[in-house]
Design brief:
The structure holds two protein chains of two kinds.
Chain A lengths: L1 E11 L3 E12 L3 E5 L6 H8 L7 E6 L2 E2 L4 H12 E4 L11 H6 L14 H14 L15 H13 L5 E5 L7 H15 L4 E5 L11 E4 L4
Helix pairs in contact in A: 4-5, 5-6
Chain B lengths: L1 H10 L1 H33 L1 H13 L6 H50 L11 H27 L5 H6 L1 H46 L1
Helix pairs in contact in B: 1-2, 2-4, 2-7, 3-4, 4-7, 5-7
Chain lengths: 219, 212
């Protein structure tokens, strides 16, 4: 997969630019770190890439095809099938077990939807928990895990639908140094499966793992 | 509001019964505080105070000052009432904090559902309206208490001096009468909102399981 960004801008009230004329190409199997001071539009860029926010101008091409997503339904479908999100605050549901949290995206995935696919969903979620070495916690609740373990559950959940692009917004923002390294190495490992990993981070450690570092600056 | 309460009761009985017990306890304590303050002022204003002072002077012997004794009793009642009111303000703030936490978790659940491509994303129902009501409802009792305090302490008057002026005393009583039921209503609303919010938050993601 190749995502080309051409002259992307985001502005509010057509005067104040959050992002101006950003161009870049993201390719499969690489880890990209987006860095820069607060307020330069790092998260905005990530949200536009993940179709959570709309661009003001510019073009996004996926494998050479201009992305022309129309309407919220289509954007939702695209998010479901193409992107996996990892959040700084994990966003795990405290009332669901670790396994159930990982299963959440599978309930709306066309391939896994429906009661008849229950075992298939459980199997997929269990595989992911194993991949991130948290399978022994599958019946625990998020508050019984450490921050690093919770983020691993968050990454497992982001991968549940087997997206081609993983977008992570400050994934280590709430973690200590040891867990930071751990999470970055897990994210890095995903590039070996051919995924595009794009991480927004203030953390200098990310430079040790990123194949490319994109530094955004204020005008 | 009560329909929502009954719906919640049916959904989650234990939790709502506990909430309701807490609410009742709050009501009783709040009523007690209001009564205490209002009674203290009424007693001070009534003939009963003079009678008690007179009777006490008849009973007491030696160096005791019956008027002082009655004043002190009144002061203790007032202090107790103030402490209880402060405690209740604390409870209100703690409930408010719980609500904020609930709203945060609800926001996270919404963000997650949006990110994973859930189409029927639930927008927080009437949040701005509810928060607005909460702010106004919290401000009114505070305004009442401030006005009562102003009536009591303006122009360097002592409590006794203020209470001797019928108008000021009436203002104080009026604000107590307005404030107490209002705070009670606020608390009922806060508790019901809290229960509703918990259910909303849980239902957001659990709904996915039900639909499955």
């Amino acid at each position: 997969m190749k995502i080309e960004i051409l002259n992307l801008s985001k502005t509010y009230n057509q005067k104040d630019y959050v992002l101006r004329d950003f161009s870049y190409t993201f390719e499969s199997g690489h880890f990209y770190a987006i860095m820069g001071p607060s307020g330069v539009g790092k998260s905005t860029l990530l949200h536009i890439l993940g179709l959570l926010d709309e661009k003001s101008s510019g073009e996004i091409r996926i494998d050479g095809q201009t992305l022309t997503v129309q309407g919220e339904e289509e954007r939702a479908d695209m998010r479901l099938l193409t992107f996996g999100f990892v959040f700084q605050e994990f966003f795990l549901n405290p009332k669901l077990t670790v396994l159930e949290n990982v299963m959440v995206p599978l309930h709306i995935h066309p391939e896994y939807q429906g009661k008849e696919n229950w075992d298939k969903k459980r199997k997929r979620a269990k595989e992911l928990l194993k991949q991130f070495q948290i399978d022994e916690y599958e019946n625990r609740y998020p508050n019984e895990l450490s921050g690093g373990e919770q983020q691993r559950v968050g990454i497992a959940r982001a991968l549940a639908n087997n997206p081609e692009v993983i977008l992570a917004d400050e994934p280590t923002g709430n973690l200590d140094e040891k867990n930071e390294e751990n999470i970055f190495s897990y994210l890095k490992a995903l590039t070996e499966e051919g995924k595009i990993v794009i991480v927004v981070s203030h953390n200098e450690t990310v430079k040790n793992y990123a194949d490319f570092i994109i530094t955004l600056r204020k005008e | 509001m009560w329909i929502m309460f009954i719906q919640n009761l049916l959904r989650n009985r234990t939790q709502v019964i506990l909430e309701f017990a807490l609410l009742l306890l709050d009501c009783i304590v709040m009523n007690f505080a209001g009564e205490l303050l209002a009674s203290g002022i009424s007693i001070y204003q009534s003939d009963w105070y003079d009678n008690v002072s007179g009777n006490l002077s008849g009973i007491m012997v030696g160096g005791s000052n019956p008027q002082m004794l009655a004043s002190n009793a009144l002061m203790i009642l007032g202090m107790l009432a103030v402490i209880v009111i402060l405690l209740l303000i604390g409870i209100c703030f703690s409930l408010w904090a719980t609500i904020s936490m609930g709203a945060r978790q609800e926001g996270q659940a919404n963000a997650l559902l949006e990110a994973i491509g859930y189409k029927k994303r639930q927008i927080q129902r009437g949040t701005w309206l509810q928060q607005g009501i909460l702010v106004v409802a919290s401000a009114l009792p505070a305004w009442g208490i401030a006005e009562a305090a102003y009536a009591l302490f303006q122009k360097n008057r002592t409590i006794a001096q203020v209470l001797e002026h019928g108008h000021d005393a009436d203002a104080v009583l009026h604000w107590i009468q307005v404030t107490v039921p209002f705070v009670l209503l606020l608390m009922i609303w806060v508790v019901i909102r809290r229960v509703d919010q918990k259910n909303q938050k849980d239902s957001l993601i659990k709904r996915l399981y039900r639909e499955d």
